[in-house]
Amino acid sequence: MTAHRLTGYRVDPDLSPGHGIDRDAGITVTVDGASVPAFTGDSIASALIASGRLGCGPSIHMSRPRGILAAGVEEPNALLRIEARTPGAPSESMLPATTVDAVDGLSAHWLQGMGVLDPAGDDAYYDRKYVHTDVLVVGAGPAGIAAAREASKTGARTVLLDEQSAPGGSLLSGRDETIDDTEAVAWACAALDRLTAQPDFTYMRRTTAIGSYDANYVVAVERSAADVAAPASAGVARARIWHIRAKRVVLATGAHERPLVFADNDRPGIMLAGAVRTYLNRYAAAAGQRIVLATTNDSVYALLEDLHTAGIAVPVVVDSRPEPSDRARAALEATGARGVFGAAVVGTSANGQADASDTGGTADRGRVTAVSFASVDGSGRPAGAVETVPADTLAVSGGHSPVLHLHTQRQGRTRWDEAFAGFVPEAPVSGQSVVGSANGAVSLGTALEQGAHAGHAAAAETGARGPLVVPTASASAPGPVHPLWLIASPGAPAGPHGPTAPRAPADSEAPTTAQPLAGNGTPALAPEHWASHFVDLQRDQTVADVLRAVGAGMRSVEHIKRYTSISTANDQGKTSSVNAMGVIASLLEDADPASVGTSTNRPPYTPVAFAALAGRRRGDLYEPARVTNIQPWHVAHGAEFEDVGQWKRPRYFPRAGEDMDAAVLRECAAVRTSVGFQDASTLGKIEIRGADAPEFLNRIYTNGFKKLAVGKGRYGLMCGADGMLFDDGVTMRLAEDRFLMTTTTGGAAGVLDWLEEWHQTEWPDMDVLFTSVTEQWNTIAVAGPRSRDVIATIAPDIDVANESFGFMEFRETQLSNGIPARICRISFSGELAFEVNVPTFYGLAAWELVDDTGQEFGITPYGTETMHVLRAEKGLVIIGQDTDGTVTPQDAGMGWAVSKLKDFVGKRSFQRTDTARPDRKHFVGVLPVDGVTRLDEGAQLIAAGTPVTPEAGPVPMIGHVTSSYLSAELGRPFGLALVENGFNRMGEIVRSPVGGTLVDVEITSSVFIDPEGKRRDG
Amino acid sequence: MLLIDCPHCGPRDEVEFHYGGQAHVPYPVDPYALSDRAWAEFLFYRDNPRGPFAERWVHAVGCRKWFNAIRDTVTYEFLAVYPMGSPPPNTSTASPPAHDSAHDSGSDPS
Amino acid sequence: MADQLPEHPAFLWRNPDPKPSYDAVIVGGGGHGLATAYYLAKNHGMTNIAILERGWLAGGNMARNTTIIRSNYLWDESAAIYEHSIRLWEQLPEELDYDFLFSQRGVLNLAHTLQDVRESRRRVNANQLNGVDAEFLEPDQVKEACPIINVSDDIRYPVMGATYQPRAGIAKHDHVAWAFARAIDAMGVDIIQNCEVTGFVKDGNRVVGVETNRGRIGAGKVGLAAAGHSSVLADQAGFRLPIQSRPLQALVSELFEPVHPTVVMSNHVHVYVSQAHKGELVLGAGVDAYNGYGQRGGFHIIEDQMAAAVELFPIFSRAHLLRTWGGVVDTTFDASPIISPTPIDELYVNCGWGTGGFKGTPGAGYTFAHTIATGAPHPLNEPFLLDRFETGHLIDEHGAAGVAH
């Protein structure tokens, strides 16, 4: 059991309860290539300590040797990279060894404060779950279990979360505590067993509440019981993100211990006293064989007793309080240990080299070999002789900081409790309570009482009542706490404290000399005396760094933290933040840390993997891909798709050997010479019904709709109140009081919202209703000179002759195969064209009917690219491509659609000076003069003769190309553009910089073919 | 995640709603009687208080109805919810939104 | 072993009491306020000035932004002022003698749809002609510029290309603030912290001073540079601003060995991310949808951000969310700033920078100082006066600024 040199070891079962480990389940882990025996239930840290290896990766900047400091999430030093267990899975970095379960075969490496990202993506499942609960209790320590018990017994739905793998919280670190005359850990397990059997109670272990949000919305991360690095079983999530909405929240989140700030307080072997106790009792791991205890409060005396019981030597207890407390006296008597009061540790000795950059060597490099202490005066300055005793471990307790992250995330305020020497809640957040050590309760009995009352009250406030039973345990009054924020090195000049000592000038003083502190005739505060007094271990920041910040003129703790980076590391200041404030307060001669500031905490409480938060929103589930019911046909016919909003739309249908240009030229030619068909089902469709529907449309569209005849459609433009185009589409009048509006594919939801906003918020007295029917109708465009033949065949009951079925009219009929349909003569291509609308139940069947019927005419499916080309040849605008939110109807050449007779949304804005300018950018056509160059969409245009010398200053641009295509019809490339004063520049030759050359471009009408519109009627 | 008390559907998560900015800014009766400056006020100028704010919301993923609310822009706490078209209540006397049902048994800490 | 960060100077600023009056007072001690004071002193010889900061210096958005610096905006007016700003950035480390880790590592703005590509090309072409360095990259070139981006087809919105501005980059925001602060303190400018303006003192329609929680301070000129709190001040002064204050969140991971060589922004797969010198990934999230001064937002915004980040950067899967926070951004209808005189004589306002103020810090300071000192806008901020909301000549940068950032 005992090694040659003083170091840690596994404690026999008769000397430690070992609550957390299963001694029958021996396993092996590997750390930095060395085998480490462990038991199931160990953390990597506890297994290492039990093997006598508490050294970890060196410090981030100074490469100082470091060791495990703590036993939980607050660990600042012992950061690991865990290797993946299976090929293809990623390794994971920056995990504190104190939080990683030991699992057989796990392999890990120490890090030096920085992680390594594994390029292998993470394919593990991560779920997200939602729950509403009456009462949420965070923390399954004694206070939390009491709260959960009293809440759940009333029948209130209760959820209990705890970050540990077993219940009990701080009880797991103890050994002789009893609750209701039962051994405490057994009490906790039994309580959970009973609770779990109750309906509507949920206990989630390995679950950390990471964020607290408005109205008691708490986000928590549940880690699977499977090992960290191996994949969980197929279909089982590696972690779950819980979104919990609670009526009432009880925070029983415990407290973290603070280190002490003295010279070289970062050495391996210096550990938090509570952690030493946790390792001893929960993991049966002795941190060392000669352990000095240094404290400011009563908490170490339970550790003293447990060490004594385990047969571990304690040479001395160094206690800052001037007189022994009752607790201290009793423990020292019972154990026979030596206690020194009114004293503090002022330094240590260590073995070996200071430089730990060689990580392959002994795990105990730089470890403490002796502890030095001395009496301290009222301000914590060493006075009197320094005594040194051999020791391999120094267990420190600077005090306790309630874990109040969830409280302060909700802007819960804290106050400094002088007696407790910690920040405690000033008042709970509305709908919440804080209990136990998180609330500054020191004794077990008080924690249980607070928890029970809180759980009972929380349930009552949700309307569920039951009898209150308070578990009982020892409730001794807490002893005094005598914090020491800064312990000077012996031999340093007089410390910074005391009325005669130099100090930082107060803000109200006029500056006398420029430098207030560091090194300016104030030797006590010279940084070299404080260069190894660590405040933030993980950031390698010392009191010297704080001095430098204060010397620079900084007074706000926020500034100092930023200047020094204190509290910004992986541990987010869990063991350093309050010490930093204490140090600053001491330097600024303020009474207590609260005068420096209060801590603000931000989610997450502990780090969460990106992939866990991404959850199932990966790959296909990242966002829905909307497809029409004709999609299978498109896929089967080789369509290439483009994203239009959330929809997948066929862009073109290439045949064997065709690239996009070839396919599109063929499709365009087919439409203009025979017939093509397109799935236009994605366009938005909104049914608008009510007596005031006509008037409503008149107010929304720029052109008139009140007098549109039943049975006809009209193309309408929509502007925002600022007069800028934002959507367009054809609206058909189905009846006096019933219209079917179409919108762009991407704009549908926005238009529906727009309509409802105007109705509900401005014109609520109008009798009009809106229903989205986008997914209730399929729309099949059939376009081209032969389209009439196709329609005549599929819709034999209607007279399709031009005289009978006019442009923009529609007919309702039954197709030859029985499908009910509404067929409209709408054309986006300028050719004779129809749109066949059928209920979506029949969509694919209707599509196939059109396809079959059209075969004899060589009917060709076409996609969005062809549609774009065809409409561009006719100068039709695509909102959102040819417009960008700055284009009015007049700019787009559609002044004809702007009613002079009625007001509509946006009309007033046309009168503004800039909106009424005659030389705004206008929508025109552009033709590369050489007949060969296809301009990029997005190409810029400059006036002829403009020198292209951007290095000498901005080159004035006159517009840009919005659409650009090859044209089968024209036999040359062409485009559309927005050009300054374009309407008045017809025929002008302008230039487009392309690569290093200038391409000549003619400004033309935007209508390239059939300007008289003769093709429209076929 | 704000909990918003839709007057029709009850308390729902904020992701079910769209925000409509300041309430009680009606479309001008006669836009053509306004100067460009006054028209700009309607288009672009809105109050932006640090504190209670009367604003519009719509339950976009639920009933799709618009309503008004008074919410504190610092604490994000809803002080009142009232129908679209109604004048703002006096928040010092108005009862809090119904979703505070968890608070209705009385013993709330102050 | 990680590189130590550059040492900060031993002295930054005095903590003086306010004088009874100054030639000019800047309300707001963030990046823009500090830069304004700097250029007032440097370019216009005005050193009898004070910055009044209601909290701790540069503790607002300057303490919490995602540090991206670029000038690749679409419109000529925007390109001009942001490019001027970048050119000032390039001189500042030497001029202020402070290494604030300005790293010109480029910025990629990704395109994920055909329309994204059109808009990207339009912006690249305009940038080039406006003298802003820009190129359009195909997906394989994007991969070369940033090897950790997933440019494959297996994500919902594959990368179809990107714009690239080589001279864009990042800088350490706190250090920028301290660099300016040290410089102006040395020039005799008073930095007054914990001094909140509670009202304005007027003589007729002219501002002659401010009321503060530390007493009345006279001022020949007053410049407002209070970002998200601009409306509060405007209300006190008696004029209106067309801005809305919204929460904007950001987040960091823990420290990692460098893997991300540049800055990547995507509107469509909403994420923008860089890796700071120290090693943390810095990501911005979207704006929360409602007005808010709480400097915080909803967790669902963060989750959306994480999903986007992991899609585009599988290597980030096991990075950990370490800290989230929020600020208050003052947004305008056109996502462009307001640098302008106000209806009140000798009262000037710089606001409306929304989610993108950090990159404009020197440019804002330079032009705002000019406006304050001369009473008239500089040509660069002429397009950004309040009157554009009246004429309709808005400068709509939602595309370029679309990603909150």
From TrEMBL, chain A:
Keywords: Cytoplasm, NAD, Nucleotide-binding, Oxidoreductase. InterPro entries: 2Fe-2S-bd_N, FAD/NAD-bd_sf, FAD/NAD-binding_dom, GcvT/YgfZ/DmdA, GcvT/YgfZ_C, GcvT_C, GCVT_N, Sarcosine_oxidase_asu. Coiled coil: none annotated. Residues 134-260 form the FAD/NAD(P)-binding domain. Residues 924-1010 form the Aminomethyltransferase C-terminal domain. It catalyses: sarcosine + (6S)-5,6,7,8-tetrahydrofolate + O2 = (6R)-5,10-methylene-5,6,7,8-tetrahydrofolate + glycine + H2O2. GO terms for molecular function: nucleotide binding; sarcosine oxidase activity. Residues 486-525 are annotated as: Disordered. Residues 488-505 have a biased composition (Low complexity). Binds 1 NAD(+) per subunit. Residues 532-616 form the SoxA A3 domain. It holds the Pfam family GCV_T. It is found in: Cytoplasm. GO terms for cellular component: cytoplasm. SUPFAM superfamilies: Aminomethyltransferase beta-barrel domain, FAD/NAD(P)-binding domain, Folate-binding domain. Its main location: cytoplasm. Residues 632-900 form the GCVT N-terminal domain. Its cofactor is NAD(+). It comes from the Bacteria. One of its GO terms (biological process) is tetrahydrofolate metabolic process. Its EC number is 1.5.3.24. Belongs to the GcvT family. This is Sarcosine oxidase subunit alpha. It comes from Brevibacterium jeotgali.
UniProtKB/TrEMBL annotation, chain B:
The keyword Oxidoreductase applies. It comes from Brevibacterium jeotgali. It is an enzyme of class 1 (oxidoreductase). Residues 87-110 are annotated as: Disordered. It comes from the Bacteria. The keyword Oxidoreductase applies. GO terms for biological process: tetrahydrofolate metabolic process. This is Sarcosine oxidase subunit delta. Residues 100-110 have a biased composition (Basic and acidic residues). Keywords: Oxidoreductase. The lineage of its organism: Bacteria, Bacillati, Actinomycetota, Actinomycetes, Micrococcales. Its EC number is 1.5.3.1. One of its GO terms (molecular function) is sarcosine oxidase activity.
UniProtKB/TrEMBL annotation, chain C:
One of its GO terms (molecular function) is nucleotide binding. Signal peptide: none annotated. It catalyses: sarcosine + O2 + H2O = formaldehyde + glycine + H2O2; sarcosine + (6S)-5,6,7,8-tetrahydrofolate + O2 = (6R)-5,10-methylene-5,6,7,8-tetrahydrofolate + glycine + H2O2. Residues 25-68 form the Rhodanese domain. Its EC number is 1.5.3.24. Pfam families: DAO. It is an enzyme of class 1 (oxidoreductase). Keywords: Cytoplasm, FAD, Flavoprotein, FMN, Nucleotide-binding, Oxidoreductase. InterPro entries: FAD-dep_OxRdtase, FAD/NAD-bd_sf, Rhodanese-like_dom, SoxB. GO terms for biological process: tetrahydrofolate metabolic process. Its cofactor is FMN; FAD. GO terms for cellular component: cytoplasm. It is found in: Cytoplasm. NCBIfam families: soxB (TIGR01373). Belongs to the SoxB family. This is Sarcosine oxidase subunit beta. It comes from Brevibacterium jeotgali. The lineage of its organism: Bacteria, Bacillati, Actinomycetota, Actinomycetes, Micrococcales.
